[in-house]
Amino acid sequence: MRHTSATKRRLLTMAGLGLTATLALTGCQVEQGAAVFVGDERIDEEVVDSYIDEHLQARGFDLAEQGHADFSEERQSLVAAVTWVELGRQMGLDSEGILTPAWSDPGTIEQLFTEESVYRGQIVSALLEDHIPDQITDEHLQSVQNDLTEHGLHGEINPEYQHLPLLVALSLASEDLSEQVGDYDIKINPRYGDVRLELLPEEILAESPELAGLYVLEF
């Protein structure tokens, strides 16, 4: 097993919370009963609701009494997941067949989040393929530093941070990313509020949870 030093895992010498940087995409009105459209593919609210029901049952909630409870964050997380999955499918990426190909038989919530993780990593890699720098320059460091400072993280950036090339690519490629994903004409039902697609992979967020929300696609 390869171990990564603490130095390379740490991005900033000092850090604070408050990250909200986004790569904005315009959300539009969608048809009644639809949760998400990715191109011509419609994912119904019933799909999201079925995942919510499974989630609540697993946590021991009484579904008959859930009407007054607020599960907006859970719904946003699920909508983001189905959006990532459908986007990955339309990009022709391989999820190892974790889910069935039709949303009429969507599988379990565990399968959904597993496939989301696989697709999200592949999608971000595909989108950033031409943006990962061969060598990190002072200008690259400053670009990431500006993003971090603007959104509430303070401290001197660590040039040995192992995921720095990815952060540099995301910092430099925001307009290109929005344009590429925009080509798939993603529409999310406004009832779900501000749904954001987190661009940083789970590996980085697990190591550095303070980076959550630093680079996202927002609808």
From TrEMBL:
This is Uncharacterized protein. Residues 1-26 form the signal peptide. It comes from the Bacteria. It comes from Natronoglycomyces albus. Keywords: Signal.
